[in-house]
Amino acid sequence: MSKVYSLPSHIKEDLKLVEEELLGIVASKKGKLAEASLATLKAGGKRLRPILVLLAGTINDYDLSKLMPAAVAVELIHTASLIHDDVLDGADTRRGFPTVNAAWDETIAISTGDYLFGMAFEILSKLNNPYFVKIMSEAVLALSVGELYQMKTYHSLNQTVDDYLFKIKNKTAFLFSVACLMGATLSGAKETEIEAMGKYGENLGMAFQIYDDVLDISGDKETLGKPIGIDLKDGIVTMPVFFALEEITTGECLQKVVENVNSTEEEIREAISIIESTSAIERTKDKAKKFIERALESIELITDAGTKRGLYSIGEFVIDRYH
Ligand code: FPP
Ligand code: MG
User: Fold this and answer.
1) Is 78's C-beta closer than 6 angstroms to any atom of ligand 1?
2) Is residue 292 in contact with ligand 1, taking CB distance under 6 Å?
3) 3 C-alpha to center of ligand 2: Å?
4) Which residues neighbour 82 within 8 Å (Cβ) at sequence distance 6 or greater?
5) Which of 9, 80, 176, 270 could covalently link to 201 via disulfide, CB atoms 3.0 to 4.6 Å apart?
6) Which residue among 77, 143, 149, 153 has the greatest number of ligand 1 atoms within 8 angstroms of its CB, and so is best to mutate?
7) Mind listing the pLDDT tens digit for each residue in 11-23?
8) Cα 259 off chain centre by
9) Mutate to test the pocket of ligand 1, among 100, 141, 171 (most ligand atoms within 8 A of CB)
């Protein structure tokens, strides 16, 4: 967590303004959907995507008034997708607070996701930039493709690490990339810099999701704000599972937990200790580090020292966090 604090100080200040704007926009609306949206946003979050918009916005001419709608819109899309994701996962808690589906119900949760999704595009349209509408729409399509792919492969061992990488590229990396592209474009960066930021965001997003999947196995419930082992319970096969299955000779218990739709808490605990008895977690963390290395390689051409330091520190944070 501490790594995020090595951001340029004006970005830290401006992030507070983004936070105020996010909460303010939703708080100004009335009704159940606004209420559920506000509760979700108030539960917090790392706000990584808005951070990326602002940081990428420092490449050339930094202008918060232009960056603000992009930062807010990208976080609203992300929040909408999490609310929908919690319905699909049947999750009761997120960030230590009840999810919308738990505190209200699934119908309200789906409508709240749609509501935020609509609001995000309304805000984005203020920038009057067809390219942003195009890449944000593509990011939303990618989110849906990634999520659908995940649903199709629940409880299935008939998938490969490449399938997993395809899924996380869609469900996570794409939106990270778009956040970077918008920030860089709004700062008036050169074409090569914009492209570099797109690659940075994509690789950072890959590392982020891989590390997120590590935390589902080796994280701490209190710090994470949600129970661990949820992916295993839901039959979502993540990188540590692939690696553990490669290593163990008697993988029956782990295989059973992945394939079984009704695994008990005890079976999940056992599956976790099987994974932890192998080098799967370490190997997975190494893969995440490789993506961070790729992300950092892509931004070698960025000349602004402050921008670069910030982007490096986000890279460090992503693979050195506890939530
Ligand atoms: C969280 O990942 C989920 C996502 C990154 C994507 C969810 C996308 C959808 C539900 C598609 C619908 C999209 C829109 C815009 C309404 P995770 O499940 O790995 O993380 P978690 O453990 O925090 O739930
Ligand atoms: Mg989920």
Assistant:
1) no
2) no
3) 25
4) 40, 94
5) 176
6) 143
7) 999 999 999 999 9
8) 26
9) 171
Provide the residue ranges of all domains of the chain, joining segments of one domain with +.
9-302
Task: Provide the CATH number for the domain formed by 9-302 in this structure.
Answer: 1.10.600.10
For residue 88 the two structure tokens come to: 């699909």
Residue 323's pLDDT band (boundaries 50, 70, 90)? confident
**Cβ-based neighbour number of residue 109 at 10 Å:** 24
Cβ(280) to ligand 1 under 6 A?
no
Give the H/E segment covering residue 94. strand 93-94
Cβ atoms of 184 and 63 within 8 Å: the answer is no
User: Which positions ≥6 away from 75 have C-beta within 8 Å?
Assistant: 18, 22, 45, 47, 49, 50
pLDDT in tens, 191-241: 999 999 999 999 999 999 999 999 999 988 888 888 899 999 999 999 999
CA distance 39 to 27: 10
Spatial neighbors of 234 by CB under 8 A, at least 6 apart, are: 89, 90, 154
In this prediction the pTM is: 0.95
